[in-house]
Amino acid sequence: MQEAYVKSRTVRGLRKHTGNKGNTRWRLDWSNEYPTSLGDEAVSASGRERPMSEALWLNHEVMFRHRKWQSTRFRGMQYSERLEQVMSSWPGVSTCPHRFGGREFRFNAAEIGHIHTGGAVDLPFPRAVRDTLLAEGLALEHRWVPNSGWVTFQVRGEEDFKHATWLMRLSYLRYVLKTASNPRGSLDEYGDELQLSPQLKSLLELFVPRSTGG
User: Fold this and answer.
1) pLDDT confidence of 50, banded at 50, 70, 90?
2) What are the residue ranges spanned by the domains of the chain?
3) Distance between CA 203 and CA 214 in Å, rounded?
4) Is pLDDT at 72 greater than 60 in this prediction?
5) Which positions ≥6 away from 154 have C-beta within 8 Å?
6) DSSP of 196-207, one letter per residue?
7) pLDDT tier at 151 (50, 70, 90 boundaries)?
8) pLDDT, position 60
9) 47 pLDDT band (50/70/90 cuts)?
10) Closest by CA position to 42, among listed 10, 19, 18
11) 29 to each of 10, 17, 63, 70, 87, how far by Cα in Å?
């Protein structure tokens, strides 16, 4: 099945190149990523496209996937820059390069979360908060440390970016509660802003200092 599928592919985005010694090679045509026409060498006498060999098709497929990856990475970098602009406006937040690429966001010395150049957002939470986020479908297990408090979320579009900002705001809130002059008032204010579920709001109350009056 796979062999037949590969052999049915046709030459697209390739051009014929003849070297000094008369040897012929097919090379990718960088002038147009999605060409609308084919060269004479790619068309048979009957006018039909000649089948591409498996090696040529695989080469073309690899280059296509590489370009797609570059495009995704570029979009991820744009979201990283936007997220940095948003979070830099939050009191007490600083940014720095993340050791595995991307940008890291901190409240004093504590990490709020980070975003990689590909658009993956990772955030550390207490295990109970992490479990609630997973149960409510608001985040995913971290790909490398699934049995920890870390969660991850992939930004692919505008709605994803808004949700990533929401997750960062949630992580930011627990540090705000520890330092705010009126932490219970801050919890109510942020709870309304983020539209927190009763379970999440109950868990965040644990970060309100015990010396604070009701």
Assistant:
1) very low
2) 2-52, 76-207
3) 17
4) no
5) 119, 120, 121, 140, 160
6) --HHHHHHHGGG
7) very high
8) 53
9) very low
10) 10
11) 14, 10, 11, 18, 42
Contacts of 23 (CB under 8 A, 6+ apart): none
- 186, 175 Cβ separation under 8 angstroms: no
Nearest Cα to Cα of residue 174 among 83, 108, 121: 108
> Cα–Cα distances in Å, from 196 out to 60, 93, 165?
48, 22, 14
- Which one, of 103, 81, 91, lies nearest residue 169 by Cα? 91
In 3D space, the residue among 5, 62, 34, 156 whose CA is nearest the CA of residue 14 turns out to be 34
Assess contact for 10 and 49: CB atoms under 8 A: yes
Q: Would the pTM of this model clear 0.85, i.e. be above it?
A: no
Amino acid at 67: R
Residue reference for tokens 């985040």: 139
CB 84 within 8 A of CB 95: yes
pLDDT score, position 126? 96
The mean predicted confidence, pLDDT, of the chain is 75
123 and 167 Cβ atoms separated by less than 8 Å: yes
DSSP annotation of 52? P
